[in-house]
Structures are given as structure tokens and as C-alpha cells.
Predict the 3D structure of the following.
Amino acid sequence: MASSVENIEQALYAKREKIFPRQVHGLFARLRLLGITVLMGIYYGLPWVTLGDRQAVLFDLPARKFYIFGLTFWPQDFIYLASLLIIAALALFFFTALAGRLWCGYACPQTVWTEVFLWIERKVEGNRAQQMKLDKSPWNARKLLIRGTKHFLWIALSLWTGYTFVGYFTPIRELGYAVLNLSTGPWETFWLIFYGFATYGNAGWLREQVCIYMCPYARFQSAMFDRDTLIISYDVDRGEPRGSRKRGVEPRSAGLGDCIDCTLCVQVCPTGIDIRNGLQYECIGCSACIDACDEVMDKMEYSRGLVRYTTENALEGKPTQMLRPRVLIYAMILMGLLGALGYSIASRVPIGLDVIRDRNSLYRETAEGLVENVYTLKLLNMDDHDHRYRLSATGLNDLALKLDHESIEVPAGQVREYSARLQIDPVDLKKPSNEVFFELEAIDNTTLRVREPARFLGPVGSR
């Protein structure tokens, strides 16, 4: 019992051992590089793309407008953001059930920026052996210059990352002028520094600790795995017993497995684990160990795949079922949600109409003996152009609409309030509470049309 407690305390309070991942080449390394290049290109390049006279992607919080490639979204369109978050979560479940931690290994921002920081570190400090030697050497002018250069480049990239992030919320060219003139606003300054500091700290210092200790995904990923999930695994039956030998030696004749115990799979791992110990939550699925092991197998003239993407069933010689019910259900739900979201955005009408009935009185009678209800109409023009509108009311026979204004005009991106009155002869009322509809249509574009329900109240026993 005492020994167990000591082991736990040692695990909790042991000093972190710095990891120096070895550079690796191969198929999965190229795929990872491609993913990083595309994602970084999108992140850093997108704010500089213009569409007409405006930034193509801009989240203008003060004006409460969100511009995305010609589409303008408003806070009223929050449902689209909620839908995207749901789709993203389902996509994570789908790809995790299918092939493990693909997100972590190839697309997670922590992985992407850590890889870039590691690339800078290798360019400045050298390969793994040179980095380890420099780390153990005493501080002198050379070490100070090398480390200073590395951190200068890290900080420069981090600040540029923070600047780009703020550029999604403030026009990036205007932000550039403000930064050069030291005239950025308080929130712009805060987020530029905060996001830059977070990038520098997470990718430069914390690295694998974010994945192991801070990210919750590593803790609940097992709930989405099953025995048919593709995971990175070491083939124990083929690799054991491990041991060194000369090239060309037949493993079985020497009483050995294919693993030569070179530990390269450990040296290339960004989280420092040994994949030969089985599936571990620290594994981020980057596939670096696959590339390293395949390279060793090629040199030893053994077949590849000692470490590979496989399933627990396949390792045990059982058939693997990739298209199983869980995966198919995730796929169908994803396709349905993506289709519904696409249709909703494509058929979205950039007009908003809110009808607020006057609650000070249920109804009133006019001098002509008509029953009248009063409404306040809030019209929102979510288009990029000014529009004049035509308003009508339906739902009851001989329903008359009275407006206090001759024309209804709403500038682009503006909200206007209008007072409207509905009048009807009481003999035309069928019941005390009736459903009516206000219809708003743009005069210059009849495709811009919206219909909003309301209630019309009249005296009991109107019939």
C-alpha cells in the first residue's frame, strides 16, 4: 500500500522530462505537413482576402454583423452557429469512431502550432542530438545567442498569430495601421497580446502537457472507440521478442521478433510514449511512429506494418467491420444536418420582421364601429442594399391594414419600427382570438419576402 502511494506521488509531482522529438520522414509525415500547410495558409491568409470593398471574412462585433464570403449574418442567425457546433461535434465522433484521433494528430491547433515551433527549433538548434547536447551544456554566449534567436522567432510568430486573430474582428489593414501607430483599442491590444502569449506558451513551452493534462478529449476518447476502430498499434505477435541483430538476419532463426528495439518509435513521439506498451491515452495519433518503424523495416529488409493503423479485432485475427451501425448512424446524421444547414442558408431571406401586439388593450372600437388591434412592427434589413417594402395583412376576410407612414424604407443593416393597425367589421370575426399574418415584401426584389403570424382579438360572441 505504501509503495502504491509513493508511485502515485512520484507520478503527480515528478519533474517534467523535456521531450526532444526526432524528425521523421514518410507518408504520414507528408500528409501531416500538407494539413499544416493548408490550415496555416487558411488561418493567416483568409483575413487578407477582400470581396468588393470589404474583407471577405470579418466578424464585426460592434456593428453585430458577420461577413462570410458575400453572406451577412446577424445575431438573429445564431442558430447557424449552433448548428455548426453540433455538426463539428458529430464529425469528431464520426472520425474518432472510424479512425481514432485524426483530429488530434493532423488538425488540432495545438498540434499544428507545435509542429511549426518544432520546425523553427530544429532550424535554429539543429537535430535531436544537437538539441539535447545544447540543453545540457552550460550557459555561455553561444547558447544564449541560439536560445535567444529561437525565442525571438517564436515570439514573432506568436504575435503575428495574435495579430491575425484580431484581424478577424477588426479589418486587418486598419488594424495594421493602428499597430504601427500604437493606437489600437484596449480590447484589440488585450486579445493581440493574450492570443500571442497563449500561442507562445502552449506551442513553445507546454507542448505535450496540453495534450496529456489539459485537453479533456484524451480522457473521454475511449468512449468512442470500439474493437473495430482504426488505431495506431504495435503488432506484439510479430514484434516480440524484441532485440538487436545485424541486417539480413532472419528473426525467427535467431529466436527474435521483427522489432530490433531501436527505440526510434519513442524518439519521434511528440508526447514521449512507447507505442509498444499498447493503446495509451497520451497517444495523439500523429503516426510518426509508423513512419519511423517503416523506415527501419525497409533498412532491415523486413515487411512494413510492425507499427500500423489497425484494429483490435485485426490484431487478434478477427474480421474487422468498418461500416458498422455506429459509423453509419453518425454518417447519416452528419449528411442530414449538413444538407439541412446548406438548404437553410441557401433559402435564407435577409429580412427580419417582429410583430409586437399592443398589450395595453385587448382591442378597441373605432368611430365607424370597426374592431381595431394595434401592433408595433420591427423591420430588419439584413441585406447589403437599401430596400423599400410593401406590407400587407391576411388571415381574415375584409381585413384592413392602416399605416401611419406612406412608405416603408429600411436602409441596409438597419432596424426600423412602424406602427400598424388592423381593422375589421365585427360580423366577420368567427371567434374572439384569430390568427392573422403580416407579409412583408421588397418592392424592388419580390424574392425578398417574409410572413409573420400574429393574433387579432375581438369581442366575445362577435358571431
Residues 141-167 form the longest helix (27 residues). The mean pLDDT is 92. The chain has two domains: 15-348, 351-457.
